[in-house]
Amino acid sequence: MGLERDTILEARGIRKVFRTGSEELEVLKQVDLEVARGELLAIMGVSGVGKSTLLHILGTLDRPTAGHLSIAGVEVASLADDNLARFRNLHIGFVFQFHHLLPEFTALENVMLPALVADQSEASVRDEAAALLQSVGLGKRLYHRPGELSGGERQRVAVVRALIRKPLVVLADEPSGNLDAASSQNLHELIRQLSREHQQAFVVMTHDRVLAESMDRLGHLEWGVLRMEAASGSKGDPS
Ligand SMILES: Nc1ncnc2c1ncn2[C@@H]1O[C@H](COP(=O)(O)OP(=O)(O)O)[C@@H](O)[C@H]1O
Ligand SMILES: [Mg+2]
After folding, report:
1. How confident is the model at residue 60 (pLDDT cuts 50, 70, 90)?
2. C-alpha to C-alpha distance for 171 and 88, rounded to whole angstroms
3. Model pTM score
4. CB 170 within 8 Å of CB 163
5. Going by DSSP bridges, is the β-strand pair 201-206/169-173 parallel, antiparallel, or unpaired?
6. Where are the chain's structural domains?
7. Nearest Cα residue to atom 10 of ligand 1
8. Which of 16, 23, 27 to mutate to test the pocket of ligand 1 (most atoms within 8 A of CB)?
9. 3-class secondary-structure state, position 16
C-alpha cells in the first residue's frame, strides 16, 4: 500500500431534491464522501432514507440537484451524456439487490456481456469471464442459466459481471438483501477478496450490520446527511 491516499471517488455537497407535482422532497441535503483506491466502504440507513438515490448519483446514473462528483479525477458534470455512458461503462460496476441477470443467457454469457458491449474481443472476454467465475467457485456452472442457479450463486455471477470491465469502483445496492445468512457471508468474503486482488473500491449500501462492519469504513445516512464512523476493526490482514 502506498503512503498517500489515492482518492478515486470524491463527492462534495451532494444534494438531491425530487419534485413530483407541487411536492418537493429533499432526500439528500449534504453528502460528502471520499473513497480511496481499493477501499471497502459500507453505507447503512433505514429503508427510504436515500441509499439507492445516493448510489445512482455516485454511479452517474442520476445527476444531483447540487454538488460535485469526481471519479478517477474527472468532474462527472463536465461529461455529456454519450461520454458519460462510456465513462461509466469503463470505471463503474454495479451490483443490485435483484441480480438483473438475463434469463436466456448462461452465467458465462451474462458475465461476458458488459465487455462485449464495450467491443472487447469475444475470445479474450470468454477466457476472462470463465476465470472470474472459477475464482468465485462457479467453474462448474458456466453453462447454467440463472434459473438453474441458487440465489447465492446468481448473486456471485452478478458480482463478477460487475468486475469484468475492471472498474475502479463497484457500487452495490443491498447485494445481500435477498440471501440467507450463509450465502450472504460468502458474498462478503468474496467482496473483500476481490477488492484485495484487484485493488477495486466497493461502496456497499446495506442495512446488514454484519456486512457493514466487515468493510474498512462505515457511514450512516440519516436525514439527508452522511456521517462516517471509525472502523470497528474486523478488516482482515493489513498487507
Ligand atoms: N424518482 C423519484 N421521484 C420521487 N421520489 C423518489 C424518487 N426516487 C426515490 N424517491 C424517494 O426518495 C426517498 C429515498 O428513496 P431511496 O433512495 O430508494 O431509499 P433507500 O434506497 O434508502 O430505501 C424515498 O422516500 C423515495 O420515495
Ligand atoms: Mg434502496
Report:
1. very high
2. 11
3. 0.89
4. yes
5. parallel
6. 7-228
7. 18
8. 27
9. strand
Q: Distance from the CA of 188 to the center of ligand 2, in angstroms?
A: 19
C-alpha cell at 210: 454484519
Position in ligand 1 atom list of the atom nearest CA 46: 22
User: What band does 184 get if pLDDT is binned at 50, 70 and 90?
Assistant: confident
Whether residue 238 has pLDDT greater than 80: no
The grid cell for 163 is 468486475
Exposure b/e, 155-176, CB count within 10 A at least 16 = b: bbbbbbbbbbbebbbbbbbbbb
Burial of 57 (0-12, 13-18, 19+ CB in 10 A): buried
Note whether 217 and 228 are within 8 A (CB): yes
Q: Are 93 and 165 in contact (CB under 8 A)?
A: yes
Q: Can you tell me which residue has the cell 466502504?
A: 41
Q: What is the pLDDT of residues 113-155, one digit of tens each?
A: 988 887 888 999 999 999 989 888 899 999 999 999 998 899 8
Residue 50 Cβ < 6 Å to ligand 1: yes
Question: Please, which pLDDT band fits residue 165 given cuts at 50, 70 and 90?
Answer: confident
Topology of domain 7-228 in CATH is Rossmann fold (3.40.50)
Look up cell 472459477; give the residue.
134
